[in-house]
Amino acid sequence: MKQNLFLFCLVWICISSNAQDLIQPQEKIITKSLAERWELEPEFKKGTFRLTSYKPFYITAGRWSSNPNNQPQSENPDYSVPTPTEYNNYEAKFQLSFKTKVLQSIFWGHGDLWLAYTQKAHWQIYNVNVSRPFRELNYEPEMMLNFGIKANILGFQARTLGVSFNHQSNGRDLPRSRSWNRVIFHTGLERGNWILVFRPWIRLPDEDDENPLITDFIGRGEANLIYTFKNHSIYLIATNSLTAKNNRGSAQLNYVFPIKANLRGHLQIFDGYGETMIDYNHRQTTIGLGISFVDW
Questions:
Q1: How many C-beta neighbours within 10 Å does residue 176 have?
Q2: Which of 40, 91, 139, 233 could cross-link to 35 by cystine, CB 3.0-4.6 Å?
Q3: CA-based torsion, 282, 287, 290, 292: positive or negative
Q4: Measured between alpha carbons, how far is 148 from 160 in angstroms, rounded to an integer?
Q5: Lowest mean pLDDT, pick from 28-37, 58-67, 93-102, 112-121
Q6: CA angle 178, 1, 60 (to 5 degrees)
């Protein structure tokens, strides 16, 4: 009952008028430019401490997995689950994400400091046998320093350059606890209806390492490729370990399409490692269908 109430409240918040900064009207479904998203030009600046969207915001009512992770393992034996849980192949998934600018026009007027928060949830809502638990919740606070730039690179215009401190964890106890800290560098380029964002990172040392080989599975960098046409949007998120031997990573393909008025459908296909933190060294293919509130 509590879980049903939680989901209802989340949906209500998303569609209420108080969430208007996170939901785009129909005539603005197409992806914002980098200048608009990061308030790089005077006409886009909104000041500090105002919530705006960061990563996509969606709810997937049905997500199918080819290989549910019933017994999560780690290279650190203290974080390996001793007995399996019979998870369903089907579950619900949602992601919410927002950011706020806390300092504007610093470093001689060229930089902004942002705080961001992203949360992903995987809910075994159809699994009556284990009392419909949230299988995994991932929390990702982030502090970003972003600079607006203008440079032409291979036909694209580079618009952003920056660095962030990123923490990601699942807030679980032993042996299911997973976390890591990263310094992430980022640059964003655009050309017409295309946006390309690169995010290589350096993992910070962790004395009590819960997931020692996470970068060998999830990767050492991410690339986002976004294309919009009319009221449709396609975006690909790919990670890679950047190694010649045992090269691993993941690819997530998303298609956002209009249904009626402001209602948009969202098809998501994932293959690889690390769809969630508990799955960092577990490979699966997943397909989900739901609704999207905020795109890139």
A1: 18
A2: 40
A3: positive
A4: 5
A5: 28-37
A6: 55
The stretch 180-190 carries a mean pLDDT of 98
pLDDT of 142? 98
What's the whole-number mean pLDDT along residues 54-66? Answer: 96
Question: How far is residue 125's CA from residue 14's CA, in Å, rounded to a whole number?
Answer: 20
Side chain identity at residue 271, one-letter code? D
Q: Going from the N-terminus, what domains does the chain have, and what CATH number goes with each? A: 2-294 (2.40.230.10)
CB 161 within 8 A of CB 144: no
| CA contacts within 13 A on the Cβ side of 151 | 9
Q: What is the pTM for the complete model shown?
A: 0.89
Say which residues have a Cβ less than 8 Å from residue 105's Cβ, sequence separation at least 6.
111, 112
pLDDT of residue 292 exceeding 50: yes
Residue range 146-173: mean pLDDT, rounded: 96
Burial of 13-45, coded b for 16+ CB within 10 Å and e otherwise, reads ebeeeebeebbbeeeebebbebbebbbbeeeee
**33, 97, 122, 169: the active-site residue:** 169
Q: What is the mean pLDDT of the chain?
A: 91
Which are the contacts of 226, defined by CB distance < 8 A and separation ≥ 6?
31, 194, 195, 196, 197, 233, 234, 235, 296
Task: Supply the pLDDT for residue 26.
Answer: 45
Catalytic residue of the set 97, 167, 282, 292: 167
Residues in CB range of 186: below 8 A, 6 or more apart: 144, 146, 160, 161, 162, 163, 164, 197, 198, 199
pLDDT of 31 reads 65
Residue 134, token pair as written in the block: 């949230």
C-beta separation of 170 from 276 below 8 A:
yes
Q: Quick check: 7 pLDDT over 80?
A: no
* Residue 266: active-site member: no
